Amino acid sequence: MRRTSAGLVVVLALLGGGVGFLVDTVLTATGRATFTPSALLPVLLVIIGGACLALAWPVRRSVRTGIRIDPFRATRALTLARASSLLGAILAGFGGGLLAFLLSRPVSAPVGSTVAMVALIASAAVLVVAALVAEQFCTLPKDPDDREPAEPTPEPGPGELRTGH
User: Fold this and answer.
1) Is 16 in contact with 91 (CB distance < 8 Å)?
2) Half-sphere exposure of 142 (CA within 13 A, CB side)
3) How many other C-beta atoms can be found within 10 angstroms of the C-beta atom of residue 1?
4) How far apart are CA 165 and CA 154, in angstroms?
5) What distance in Å separates the CA atoms of residue 52 and residue 127, rounded to the nearest whole number?
6) Phi and psi at residue 162, to the nearest 5°
7) Radius of gyration of the chain (CA)
């Protein structure tokens, strides 16, 4: 499994930002209040980030000490880390889109809404970082059996050919 690329994280954050901006635009156009995430969402995102690190730590320890670990456990930790990094990127972008909409309006936004958006963006960024670190913890060293095939011996050049006289 390849590591999560920075490009994918950025693309998901941009898509999430567009969706967040669009959601608030549609809500405002239909006469409804803008979307404000729950105050518990940032707390939940930080808890998920901590869980990613906690589940990946035994994998890191087993890689460093050489003690065998259940491969399914390592796979689950890696899958959770990857999914969390992608979710964090989407939510950071979503919160950024919501905040951009609030700040672009001619009417000043309520402080509570602005603080909620900033908390969402910050906690989602913490989740992305924690998940990427957890993904790094789950990286296994290459096995000696998995090494690249040896370079083929170069063909002799025209000056190196010997003919028997």
Assistant:
1) yes
2) 5
3) 10
4) 25
5) 9
6) -110, 130
7) 25
| Max Cα-Cα span within the chain | 97
Q: Which residue's entry shows tokens 């309006």? A: 105
Q: Residue 140 phi/psi, 5° resolution? A: -95, 145
For the record, the structure tokens of 4 come out as 């999560």
Query: Which tokens hold the place of 41?
Result: 């969402």
Other C-beta atoms within 10 Å of 39: how many?
12
Joined tokens for residue 6: 């920075």
- What six digits make up the tokens of 104? 């672009």
Task: Show pLDDT as tens, one digit a residue, over the chain (165 residues).
Answer: 678 889 999 999 999 999 999 999 999 999 998 888 998 999 999 999 999 999 999 999 888 888 888 888 889 999 999 999 999 999 999 999 999 999 998 888 778 889 999 999 999 999 999 999 999 998 876 665 555 555 555 665 565 555 555
